[in-house]
Amino acid sequence: MVRLLQLELQKLLLNRTSKILIFISFILPFTVLILSSIKINFFGFFTLELGELGIYNFPIIWHITTFFAAQFKFFFAIVVVSMIGNEYSNKTIKQNLIDGLSKKEFILSKFYTIVFFSLVATILLTLISLLIGLYYSSYNEIGIILSETEYLLGYFVKLVGFFSFCLFLGMLAKRSAFALAFLFVDFILEWIIFGLITWKANVDIAEKIQNFFPLKSMYNLIKQPFQRIAMSKFPDKESLAYDYAVHWYEIVIVIGWTALFVFLSYRLLKKRDL
């Protein structure tokens, strides 16, 4: 595993574009630190400081930071599809196989890289969230600090699942631009199918089925926190209540898609004439 990971990291670090995109992927989550210190002056009447609104209190901070950090995953998604696109355009995939790398090892090297970067991103986000929370939070009991840290697990699984999907699309399209286009097409298709099911059946059935779709299931791991923030400010508004927890079955669904995407990537490579 270490050998395959080192091989892939060496390829990425020798590519200037990949290095820039990886750097951006890891730096952007630090914008949460900047946002936490922003003070907005409303024409001298009052000053709004995001850190003083309570949104960085434990345990809600885990929900907020993981949700917003997940929006930056597209930068590393470009790196993932580029890993495959460059292999085909530069003919290095054929050379790797000639040099003794099996097709299974080739796919595993990509997957190990995905897991590695997802783990690093999760660790960085954990440290960032912990620092902000310790500074701003009104609660410092260890039990409260550690509660809802399942959002970090959800964030990690979400990244691995999404990047594995990009890996499969990269193998399918063999070109970075086409792979990203297929990603957008899948997003549109999921909503078209949702609309058709709603038309033929009802919204409740359509939503239950939609929750098993690739992109929707990944989104469900960390739901939007805006209603939750509103609930904390207006606790008497029962209409704002919703299920924002990270559920085990949602993690299982994404893990299932991840395994399927990696397997299909291997099958595509195995059957393809290089």
Automatic annotation (TrEMBL):
* MF terms in GO: ABC-type transporter activity
Tell me which GO cellular component terms the UniProt record holds: plasma membrane
Keywords, A to Z?
Membrane, Transmembrane, Transmembrane helix
Transmembrane residue ranges: 20-40, 60-84, 111-136, 151-170, 177-199, 248-269
Q: What is this protein called?
A: ABC transporter permease
Q: Which organism is it from?
A: Pontimicrobium aquaticum
